[in-house]
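Objective 1b of the project was to move from sequence-level analysis to a structural picture of ligand recognition. The entry below was assembled by the postdoctoral researcher (A.K.) and checked by the PI before modelling. It contains the amino acid sequence of the target and the SMILES of the bound compound, flavin-adenine dinucleotide.
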Amino acid sequence: MFDYFRDAPLNRCCTFLTGGRARRLAYAYTQEELCEAADCGALVLGRGSNVLVGDAGYDGDVVVNRTASRTFSGEFCECDSGVLLSLLSREYAAAGRTGLEWAYGLPGSAGGAAIGNAGAFGGCMADVLDSVTVLSGGKVRELKAEECGFKYRASGIRGTVLKLRLKAPLGDAETIRELSERNLARRRKTQPLGASAGSVFKAAGLLPAGLLIDRAGLKGASAGGAEISPIHANFIINRGGATSGDVLRLILEAETAVFLKYGIRLEREIKLLGEFF
Ligand SMILES: Cc1cc2nc3c(=O)[nH]c(=O)nc-3n(C[C@H](O)[C@H](O)[C@H](O)COP(=O)(O)OP(=O)(O)OC[C@H]3O[C@@H](n4cnc5c(N)ncnc54)[C@H](O)[C@@H]3O)c2cc1C
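Corresponding predicted holo structure:
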């Protein structure tokens, strides 16, 4: 049993740093707490790095997943779903284990990454996952990776991801470290700093969404305190004082401009939660 904060601000729980309040908010540090909250219908958030929460907030309970236990065992890593993926990636590299080089610097939780099949630089969760433990309809089940319905930046996982079993074979420590560092350097070179949720849209087939938005003339466009990054047009940045409404306006502008110019309907990678008006 743990305490809920009432009428709690959600902007501190997501990387856009925008959004309204939740009716109740709790932090889960153990599997028991996570199960209890999820079983009672709370919306589970990891690091909030792939969501835009509406300014009118979320009329329900939210639980922020801070479970953090992980161990290497044989050729596998067993971890809680709240573990920060960038931290795990560093631990893989330090232990000379391969599979998470692409995730160096990725700011999401392992559970959130599994739900969205996060990926970068040619790797993704579907490649590294062996199985997940999921709470759904009051029952705990283990799903093998092939039962997770993974697609490009999506999965068919329904319910709350409690734990993950990831492949973690030993490899050449020096090569793993080099590749991880190279990926982090690429991230730093190509992605803007500032409050964001990473890529807003999925690539449209082989066409990067950022390129389409750029060619539609929206690089650098702003609404209130939000801006389509002049560095990477698939990133919207909260330059300070932005509302989720400002971010949403830019999302809609980008969708409209790309559709009018190319006839392509951009698909959102980030998830919109709660009420916007
Ligand atoms: C600077 C930056 C760079 C990024 N780079 C990348 C990148 O290279 N590749 C990439 O794929 N993404 C990237 N992202 C997006 C994001 O980090 C990933 O999608 C990440 O996996 C989301 O995890 P999270 O814990 O933040 O999920 P959240 O944003 O907290 O949640 C996302 C969704 O998953 C659900 N959810 C979260 N945890 C669970 C759980 N345990 N069980 C069930 N549902 C859950 C939430 O309810 C929500 O619907 C980036 C984001 C930022 C800010």
